[in-house]
Write a structure and sequence with these properties.
mainly alpha, 12 helices
Length: 275
């Protein structure tokens, strides 16, 4: 069953809901949806394709169509407002409300916590502590990272995570993470994040020689793209990340810590403009 709390894009949720409903109810169609919500079926199609938004006045009609309970209805309504938001302030407001409503708890990394992104291994140590018991053996913790850390680096990472409130030390001497998911908020950028991304991309290059092919998956595609297609490509990338997160959240996540980089960048000047 499609779970609305797994989504940050209401149109993606509607697409998945439609696909599932179509399998179980042959009569379920765009025309059926249009009739139920009093909307032209062609408009419904464009909404599910991500080209248009439903109007605020139609939210209640969709809630009835989807048969959502009170909490789900509130989440869906917030998703719609989040998707329609025009300003960064509005997006942040609805983004925070989504996590307040959702049963998925996240630890938000505010701007003052930028230090988390200063070193690539801070997130790696956080993930390791999140997966396996850690009671202060910094030598073992340092060895679990790849490439391995020094004991000093491992201690520095744990000290920072505790100070930022991302990890806490219990009375029995064990360390535990304070939340399973991390978010920087909606489109929060900083010099620290860009530095972190450069470090992760560099590690990806080193991974070619460091790991066997069975332990990594690295591929490249060089392609010619017109500017009009870029939004659609970005949307496919976003959907891929979203789908991957669902898979990860459905498993116990204690096997190994992986890093996934998705990169799209130009290899030429604007050829149409240069012509």
């Amino acid at each position: 069953m499609v779970n609305i709390f797994d989504y940050l894009d209401y149109r993606e949720y509607l697409r998945d809901y439609y696909a599932e409903a179509k399998r179980n109810k042959p009569f379920f169609s765009y025309r059926f949806i249009g009739n139920r919500v009093e909307m032209d079926s062609s408009y419904v199609i464009k909404v599910l394709q991500g080209n248009l938004h439903i109007t605020v006045k139609k939210i209640d009609a969709f809630i009835q169509l989807l048969e959502l309970d009170e909490k789900e209805a509130e989440f869906f309504e917030t998703l719609v407002h989040f998707g329609r938001a025009k300003t960064e302030r509005q997006r942040k407001l609805y983004f925070e409300k989504l996590f307040t409503i959702s049963s998925v708890k996240a630890t938000r990394l505010d701007a003052h916590q930028y230090e988390f992104f200063r070193k690539w291994y801070y997130s790696a140590v956080w993930s390791i502590v999140n997966c396996v018991p850690f009671k202060g053996d910094f030598h073992a913790l340092a060895g679990k990272c790849m490439p391995a850390l020094s004991v000093m680096e491992a201690k520095r990472a744990v000290k920072l995570l505790v100070r930022l409130g991302l990890v806490e030390k219990r009375d029995d001497g064990s360390y535990v993470t304070t939340g399973r998911n991390l978010t920087t908020g909606w489109q929060w950028h900083s010099e620290a994040i860009e530095t972190n991304q450069r470090d992760m991309i560099a590690l990806a290059g080193e991974a070619i020689g460091r790991f066997d092919r069975n332990d990594r998956d690295i591929s490249t595609v060089t392609m010619s793209v017109d500017e009009k297609s870029l939004p659609e490509i970005r949307e496919y990338i976003r959907q891929f990340r979203s789908s991957l997160i669902k898979i990860v959240n459905s498993c116990n996540g204690t096997g190994r810590v992986y890093q996934l980089n998705v990169q799209l960048f130009p290899l030429s000047t604007d050829l149409e403009r240069d012509a």
